[in-house]
Design goal:
187 residues, alpha+beta, four-stranded antiparallel sheet, 3 helices, signal
Length: 187
Amino acid sequence: MIRFPFALAVFLAACMTAQLSAADAHQGFYEIHLELSGTSPTSERPENLAMPAMHAKANVPFSIDAGGILPRDPQFDGPPLETGMRLAGILRPNANGQLQLQATLRRSEEVENDAGVTIVRHDSVDVRMTLQGAELDPQLAAIQPPKGRMIKLSETRSLIIRVRPVSRDATAGQPIAIPSTAPLPVN
């Protein structure tokens, strides 16, 4: 009876040690860059969705916002409507020790119908992306930048996620988040 709890404790310690050593192998910053193609004529105009980017570190949660807020209509009560996109997640080692981007993409789109009614549609997608090659190695990224991965949002719109390693020297004295040029919220 005493052997089972001891064996379980040894097994859990071995698993945690392997996970920590995999996390240590992926030190440094990674730049995550979003690019929207095939924009809609309403809320997903290029000026509303600038191509935001930020620096993220392994095992530290991140969030990238791309979009704005529709101002509150004085005729109606209620909060302003948020439109645009948010990618929130974490870069972490998977079971094989490979670095993986695990995130949720939330999207809200403003649509006005023929009757003049504005509707905001919300949807979300979970993203799992194992980083490879130039997405992990700064030397490879300097020779050939990562191509990025495409997510099809609709028949006409796609989102490209690019991840590239950033050397520690490049981030010295820099803020972790690069500000987006998306319009500021209007209340």
